[in-house]
Here is the input.
Amino acid sequence: MLVFDTLSAVVQRGAQVLARLPSSPARVVGLVAGPFGVHFTMHQAAQVAHRDSDTLSFVNAVRLLCHAIPDFQSSIVDDHPARWLRLLNDVLPFRLPTRDNRSNPRVVKRQRSTFDVKRPWQHLPPLPLRPFRQSVILL
Here is the structure.
C-alpha cells in the first residue's frame, strides 16, 4: 500500500522524506487507517449485495468516499444511516473487469536434476541371458 511504502521510505531515507510527511500524529494515523476504512466500506457494500468484495473497485470507492464525507459532515446524525446505505449502493456498480486467463506463463521453469541425462543406449537395458528361476537363487 502507498502508506506503508511511504513509511518505509521514511525509514530508509531519513529526515529528507520526514519533512514532507504530515506533522501531527493524528494525520499519520489517518494515513494508515484510511485504506482500511475504504476496504471496510467495500466489504459492507459487498455484504449488502451478497458479492465478493474483491470484485469492487478500490479507486472508485475512494472517489465516492471523498464526495460523501462532506455530505455526512453537513447532514444531521439521523440522516447518516440512509446516507450510508446510499453510499454502499453507489459503490456496488463500480466493479473490476474480469482478469484475462493467461495461456502462456511468463516464465517456463525447467526442471533440473543433479543426475546426468540418460543417453540413447541407456534407454534399453540388456535383456537377461537366463530365465528368472535360474537367475535367482533362494537360500
Remarks:
- The chain has a mean pLDDT of 77.
